[in-house]
């Protein structure tokens, strides 16, 4: 094994890595590496757990404002490094640097929280919802608040939700319980105008906000011609087995709807990487957690989350059949040393049941306690 280093054009700074050849850098970049520029573009191909997860021809590593990159846990091959600037990335992530100033600077561990929305009015009526945009019931509102209580001591830098109101309500209600008292703010980047109109001009206020990114790719699977029909009545009409197959199999599509496999193609693709239309930057929830070391919450749906969990937990198409997600129950994953591993039980009905504390999370909580004294 030889030592490799990536020299960044700041004159005084270099990033060191250890690799098998001169181009490979991995396991480098834990807290404290300083750069003189605010952003670095690296063309890289990351590998997690020694397996290639995807090809990222261009990935932007946004450095924190004070020039500290907290963690880079990917093994990757560098071919080029250059400095870039992206207004979009800046607008989304400028508030993220708040996490280092937040109680409990977390050094080498990041968190991913997945929450299925609380009960919707159509869940209550046992109707196939799919992409129909239905709000929460009172019970769903309570479930979202309860979910918020369970994750109130976990750090959150950015929130992703689907484009559907039940997921957005869940995210917003959950955040009302968080002890960081930051304000979740929906990012409007649909057009130049919406970006300009929704700009926050105070840096200080920005630091007190959490960006909420809406993505249709995280929507519930399209249930096609079943949408609006009662699940029980549909089972009586077409047979229990057929309906179970439509609802739980990996590759069977409900009539004119999406299979889990199709849902997975858009949801997992978005989760792993997507290109921002304005800045042309490649980003993604996975990258955000793994590469940038951000603490991310995703509020979405039974089937978009089943697809993401299947990906994260490496489940087979057979195993995913038995994966059931309850409304409003947060699941916690921890990213450490390039691995994202499940930490919390989906059945946990208390904060302690949702996750077991790691050292860094305990520290974050302790700092929250100190601030609120
Ligand atoms: O879309 C729906 O009806 C539900 O949110 C998920 O339904 P399922 O449990 O039938 O997949």
TrEMBL record:
Pfam families: His_Phos_1. Signal peptide: none annotated. The keyword Isomerase applies. It comes from the Eukaryota. Keywords: Glycolysis, Isomerase. The keyword Isomerase applies. Substrate binds at residues 116-123, 166, 220-223, 231, 247-248. Belongs to the phosphoglycerate mutase family. BPG-dependent PGAM subfamily. This is Phosphoglycerate mutase. It comes from Rhododendron simsii (Sims's rhododendron).
């Amino acid at each position: 094994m030889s030592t490799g280093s990536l020299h960044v054009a700041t004159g005084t700074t270099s990033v060191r890595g250890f690799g098998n050849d001169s181009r490979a850098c991995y396991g480098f970049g834990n807290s404290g590496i300083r750069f003189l520029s605010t952003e670095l573009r690296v063309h890289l191909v990351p590998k997690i757990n020694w397996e290639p997860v995807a090809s990222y021809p261009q990935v932007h590593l946004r450095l924190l404002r004070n020039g500290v990159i907290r963690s880079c846990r990917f093994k990757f091959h560098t071919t080029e490094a250059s400095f870039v600037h992206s207004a979009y990335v800046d607008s989304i992530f400028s508030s993220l640097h708040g996490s280092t100033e937040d109680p409990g600077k977390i050094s080498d561990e990041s968190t991913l929280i997945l929450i299925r929305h609380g009960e919707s009015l159509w869940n209550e009526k046992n109707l196939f919802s799919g992409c129909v945009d239905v709000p929460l019931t009172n019970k769903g509102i309570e479930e979202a608040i309860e979910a918020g209580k369970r994750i109130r001591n976990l750090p959150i830098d950015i929130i992703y939700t689907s484009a559907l109101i039940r997921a957005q309500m869940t995210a917003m209600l959950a955040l009302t319980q968080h002890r960081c008292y930051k304000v979740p703010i929906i990012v409007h980047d649909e057009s130049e105008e919406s970006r300009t109109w929704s700009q926050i001009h105070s840096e200080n206020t920005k630091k007190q906000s959490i960006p909420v990114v809406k993505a249709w790719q995280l929507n519930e699977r399209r249930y096609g011609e079943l949408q609006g029909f009662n699940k029980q009545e549909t089972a009586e009409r077409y047979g229990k087995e057929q309906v179970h197959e439509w609802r739980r199999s990996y590759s069977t599509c409900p009539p004119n709807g999406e299979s889990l496999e199709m849902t997975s193609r858009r949801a997992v693709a978005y989760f792993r990487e997507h290109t921002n239309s304005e800045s042309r930057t490649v980003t993604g929830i996975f990258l955000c957690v793994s590469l940038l070391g951000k603490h991310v919450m995703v509020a979405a749906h039974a089937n978009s989350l089943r697809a993401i969990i299947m990906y994260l937990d490496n489940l087979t198409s057979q195993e995913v059949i038995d994966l059931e997600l309850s409304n409003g129950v947060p699941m916690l994953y921890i990213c450490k040393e390039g691995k994202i591993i499940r930490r919390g039980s989906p059945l946990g009905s208390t904060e302690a049941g949702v996750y077991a504390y790691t050292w860094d999370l305990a520290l974050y909580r302790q700092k929250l306690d100190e601030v609120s004294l």
